[in-house]
Write a structure and sequence with these properties.
Layout (H helix, E strand, L loop, with lengths): L4 E5 L3 H13 L3 E5 L2 H8 L6 E5 L7 H10 L5 E6 L4 H10 L3 E4 L4 H29 L11 H13 L6 E4 L6 H10 L8 E5 L8 H6 L16 H4 L4 E5 L6 H13 L1 E3 L6 E3 L3 E6 L3 H6 L5 H7 L2 E4 L10 H15 L7 E2 L1 H9 L5 H15 L4 E2 L6 H7 L4 H6 L5 H19 L4 H8 L3 H13 L4
Length: 459
Amino acid sequence: MKSLDVMVIDDEPAIRQILAAHLLKAGCNVCQAPNGLEALERLSKGDIDVAICDIKMPDISGIELVRRARASGLETNFIMMTAFASVDTAIEAIQAGASDYMIKPVRNEEVLHRLLKISDMRGLRAENRVLRSLVQGNKEDQFAFLSPVMRDLDRLIDKVSPTDSTVLVTGESGTGKGVIARRIHQQSPRTNAPFIPVNCGALPENLIESELFGHTKGAFTGADKARKGLFLEADGGTIFLDEIGELPLLMQVKLLHVIEEKSIRAVGSEQARRADVRIVAATNRDLAQMVAEGRFREDLYFRLSVFQIHVPPLRERSEDMARLVQFFLHRGMKRMNVEGAISVDPEVEELLDAYEWPGNVREMENVIDRALILADKGQITCADLPPQIIKNGRAATPELAIQDCGESLRDQVRRFESALIGKAINEADGDRRVAAQKLGMGLSSLYRKQEEFETLGLL
């Protein structure tokens, strides 16, 4: 049992002292109060987890104390004690906001048992608050995109979220598919119900069915108790099946059945249970190609991709690059408790903009966090970046490096980029769309770069 701060409230000193001594021995932090008014004053600090309180007291009753505590917004749990076994009194105490009720004389073992139940309940309540904050997110953690491709993606999310449609989110590793799934859940009518993320690639193949659909006691060796399964844990909410392409063919058949029948059959059970679960799946694989190769069921693919959202890689959303850097910078500073202002050297911005980000948004956040740890004197410089980013930014030809050795790094990078863009456009016979595809960048980014370099006289 987690250590609890407990208050014993009773007008009989012997009862208070005996109970307090037993609770101290059990590892609780204990204080005492001889009446309701003194107890209320002490409770007002808000640091008491549980109050074990007599109902009949000389100033105000224990039930009135509970009412006043609840009216003050205190989250203390109350266990009520009385020498009179009355159903009406018990009902009144619970209606006032008490968590539990015991008849005097109370047994020490029974008190500890009730405290253990409350400790577990408070732990679950705290976990639920954390999980809900993760699902719903913080307004400060939401990023407003400028790139057209991401604005189109936002529109798709807004359209599909209020529905119960199954959604398939595709995209390279690190593009934020999990964030998209959470947003869909958050903006849906199911937002207050569970959001259960499942990494299909991390589940042991021999336990996948049990993990997803549950099992009965004795269903297989080691099943010493029944298990609910993740689908039933998500009942009423959303289950996010990440890396769905890793699911074995046998489990694909069973998942298809769940989608079609909207029911779950636990391993070892003959009884199916209804499950009201919305499915959002994600993959960085080409499922259509896997279907053609016989490695993914076509019928399941069609069921999952009723509504498909593709998250473009970071290299195709260069309009968001500079603002994403600042976004992750400020978020990292908050998370690491970094005080003061941190600036980014202009040469760093050029290197980050030139890098192709194979790990996408996840890689960018890691790079910014690393730079924050290494930064000195309130500025992130090139020395704080990983070697692969430095190497990429300086990947000029030997001839160019010799020619421009007297220029700053930013000017050299610009000159090199302008030469590459000009060459790609010439090789594409002036077709800028083809040139952009060859360079692995968005068409709008190519136009922006071309305009910038023309202004500087580099094109």
